[in-house]
Every structure is written in C-alpha cells, then in structure tokens.
Design goal:
This protein is mainly alpha-helical. Helix content is 63%, strand content 3%. It has one domain. The protein is built from 8 helices and 2 strands. The longest helix is centred in the first third of the chain and has 32 residues. The two termini are 27 Å apart.
Length: 177
C-alpha cells in the first residue's frame, strides 16, 4: 500500500486552498457534521468512555510492569511499603510512559485504541491515516492533552461541545455511527 503524500504546490508548501479542502472533508465527515447520533457532546462522551476503557488496560499493564520490576529485584512488597513515595513516583512514570506509547502506537499502526474500537470512535478520517504527517499529529494531539492535563481538556471539550484538542492539533474525532 502506498503512502499518500500531503498536497503541495510548486514551492512544496501547503496552500490555503489545500487547507480548505481538508476543512471541507472534516465538515462533511468530522466532529460537527458526523453521524446524526454522535456529534457534539455525545461524541465527546463516547471519547471519554473509550479513554476510561483504555485507562483500565493501561493501569493493568502498569501494575504488571511494576510487579516484574519487584520480581527482577527480588524485593518483597513488605520491603517497598516504607518507601511509598518512591514506589508511587515510579508507578506514575511507568503509567504515563505506557499510556503515551499505547496511544501513539495503537492509533498510528492500528488506526484506533481498543477503547476507541469498542465505542467506534476514531481520530481523523480513513484517508488521513495514510498521510505521512498522521503519526506526528497523533503525537502532537497526545502532547496537547498531556500538557493541558489529562482530564481538563476533555471536560472543556464536553462543556463547549467542540473537540478542542482536535481544533488545536488538526486531528479531530470522527465516528461512523
């Protein structure tokens, strides 16, 4: 399968006309004009539900990695309990790293995470996933959500009935239902 390149003009730059084509595609298939059942606040709610499913999977993976860490050091849990702050800090770093890798790898190579597949929510339209810039936009969107606080931006999106992370990163939520 060939990789679709971004449309460029003679100077190898994206023109305003190319941007308007992308905006037209999003207007027809994207967040505001998706299916009749899922748009606005309803679509954000399904995205939040998919994030909860993904968080449970990531939490399980993080506990498993911490368990392997304790096994590799041949440490009992009783020896770790006096150092709760160290273990909590270690778990937090492991959790955030696994979450970032999980989101970026599955969205880039699988098209969606497991939670997004369950609730039929995707980032970007199908044709957009074959662009060279897609993985970088997924990383950019993930960093935006991390910088604004993992809970803050989705709640603001729900309140304003707009995909704010999608508006900033250019990678909006879409749904086929």
């Amino acid at each position: 399968m060939d990789i679709i390149r971004e449309p460029l003009n003679k100077e190898n730059k994206v023109t305003p006309a190319d941007r308007s084509v992308n905006q037209r595609i999003y207007h027809e298939l994207g967040f505001n004009s998706g299916s009749r059942k899922r748009r606005g606040r309803k679509l954000i709610e399904f995205q939040i539900l998919s994030a909860l499913v993904d968080s449970l999977l990531i939490l399980a993976m993080s506990f498993f990695v911490c368990f392997l860490y304790l096994l590799s050091l041949k440490t009992d849990l009783v020896q770790v309990l006096p150092h709760k702050f160290y273990f909590a800090e270690l778990f937090g770093v492991i959790f955030l790293w696994i979450q970032f890798c999980y989101l970026v790898v599955l969205r880039t190579f699988g098209g969606a995470t497991f939670g997004e597949k369950v609730f039929d929510v995707r980032l970007g339209i199908f044709q957009e996933r074959y662009l060279l810039s897609y993985p970088f936009r997924v990383i950019y969107r993930t960093f935006i959500i991390y910088l604004c606080g993992i809970v803050t931006l989705p709640l603001l999106s729900w309140f304003f009935k707009k995909d704010l992370a999608g508006e900033i990163s250019g990678l909006k939520i879409t749904s086929n239902i």
